[in-house]
Please model this.
Amino acid sequence: MGVAQPVAIPKNVALSHPPPQAHPDSVIITVNDSVKWDYAGDFVVVFEKETPFDSWYFYPGQNVSGVPRPDVKHDYPYKYTVHIDGERRDPNVIIRP
Model:
């Protein structure tokens, strides 16, 4: 029988509107963490140029990132865009070793 591993709770990014905001604006995670974007309404999170995760898009029902890919750059700001009601905000995800 294996040893139970602790379950990591995703780092929460609270989205708000108007105007679109992400709290924290730059979320810092480790290679073992994930991110959960939280907003009561409709939203889309898009990594437009590069993503540290397997997915490029997050939205209600698909709002948890999973852990970063093994080939991510550390201490590097991965910019993403939050779209809410036709407006946008450009925060970051930063991965620490």
In short: The CA atoms of residues 13 and 37 lie 5 Å apart. The mean pLDDT is 94.
